[in-house]
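Q&A log
Question type: sequence-to-structure
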Amino acid sequence: HGLPVELEVEKKLGFKSKLDILNYGVAEFNQKCKESVWEYKKEWEDLTERMGFWLDFKNAYITYETNYIESLWWIIKEFYKKGLLYEGYRIVPWCVRCGTALSSHELGQPDAYKTVLDNSVYIRFKIKSEDKKFENTSLLSWTTTPWTLPGNIALAVNSNHKFVKIPDPDLKNNFLILEEQSFKRLIEQKVFPLNFKNLKPELILKAKDLIGLNYESLFNIEFLKSDKSYKVYEADFVSQEEGTGIVHTAVMYGEDDYKLGQKIGLPQKHTVDENGKFIEDIADVGGLEIISEKQKNQETEKKIFDYLSTKGNLFKIIPYEHEYPHCWRCKTPVIYYARNSWFVAVNKVRQKLIQNNQKINWIPSHIKNGRFGQWLKEKKDWNFSRERFWGTPLPVWKCKNCKNKEVIGSIKELTSHLEKSKNKYFVMRHGESETQIKRIIDAGQGKYHLTTLGKDMVLRQAKKLLKEKIDLIFSSDILRCKETAEIVSKVLGKEIIFDERLREINLPTFSDMHIKSYHEAFPTYESRFEKRPPNGESLRDVRARVWLFLSDLEKKYENKNILIISHEYPIWM
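Response status: OK
Response body:
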């Protein structure tokens, strides 16, 4: 529910990234999301009725309401209690446009995979060895994601394969090494000249001859260097079906790559940030986007190819048609990216889920062993968390020092953990004013005074407060509160600190109008909470600024008796 709404609002506001939301304001952005939720309410209900789809409109669940969020918190707490919730650094499908990970279920959407024509590239990795048989020789590798090449940190081969050393068709007195069967296939695919078909290799090599070899890095990146970097390693995921039988490995940008890097102990450092841009200190490509909103970024690829061509590493570029996953919300190609995320350990209960699925009467029946059944069989844990603004907050708190975690399952449980205030607060509404007599809205012009009765009420209340030994007085600066605070200040002998955050709700379009005009325009508390009049505030806005005010008091003062003088709405917020 959350992310499609968020994307819709981003489009309306013309936003391109998360940074635009931060600049606009998270609270303001979420308010727009709330408004968007109800924008097509009538159309949705009419369509649902015409479809004959049975829904309870009067008691519909609202994903941003407390009771819905609290129900999810309970589920998350149950995951945690059963040992199924964990935090992990894993390769996830990542949308650079939406700035969030996608689950395997989301990648299973009907239009997630699209047939695309990408540039695949064959790259020479120059061997560093004193052994004469590797002199002027490069290992040939292949990739369909050229943007991962700056992050290359290892090459992988299958220990069961054989390899050939052949003349480089483009560089005189230079040689290439690749897997034997792959070489034959690449001749048929015209990657190598057809006259290579009867070529006798210079040398037949076993995988053990290559494993452990050092090679020159493509890009000179200091933070990727280690005693284990830029070597050839054994890996059973390398096949003969595509490529050269020598796999380029970038630890942070592929599941097999990451597992191999973990096993070996290779540096785990990103060359691309979460916004899909190369970090600044990478030669020739720093700051460039790896993917545009709609397609692979050709400008960046050209820069990479030109750089590698100048160094003699670029062997051949060949268009390659294949299926590639896209974000189902914004249609941007996803990347496989190492992220710190929260997961549900589905693999621990997968067999039980599969068994229970067989007891369900699915309509249509093919879903049981089809899409849903196949999804259950995938040996992947559920990538549970997202990194967005409009959604259920993950109720997990982790100590930065001791790493102890606590998962909260309800609002009641959360409030029981909150630290008790060391201050004592007294809250007082202004005395009777002209706005109350006239039932009129004051948008803050400050022209409505206390009545004679109102002043008398304030004086009597102030005398009662003498026994409370008030230390500080804070007040709204609107006239009726200001007059109230001045009376109290004289009785208690304390100065007043005025704060705009204690003002009445701002309703400029209803200024000087009868209160019923506001209530007719916003007839329910829900509407007053969720909607703003032009240039005005919602009750949620009022609550936000009052909480900020109180938060500041808590940070600044301790063991004080504090009197707050304000208006109706800010007080009961």
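Response note: The first strand starts at residue 85 and ends at 95.
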